[in-house]
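Structure tokens please, single chain.
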Amino acid sequence: MDPTWPHRLAAMNIYYAQKNFKSRHHKYAASIEILAPDVNQEILSPFKIELFVEEDGSNFIAVISEDSYEVTINDSRLLLVKHGQYDEQL
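Here you go.
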């Protein structure tokens, strides 16, 4: 089993919630709290989540971390997994 799968799942949950939010509001949500109705809290609850959004709401990067793993995803769906000294772009 891939130990980063839960992190990746959380990242994709945020990605699709952001896309859904943008389709309704024409910009990305500035905080994870704003996305609460569109995300699965059970999937996100184990993680520390940071959300970085451009001032005009045009781009975002989400960082999902726990233990020694960190997964980032951006508005282009670029997913980056970091574990210790290793990085993997998907």
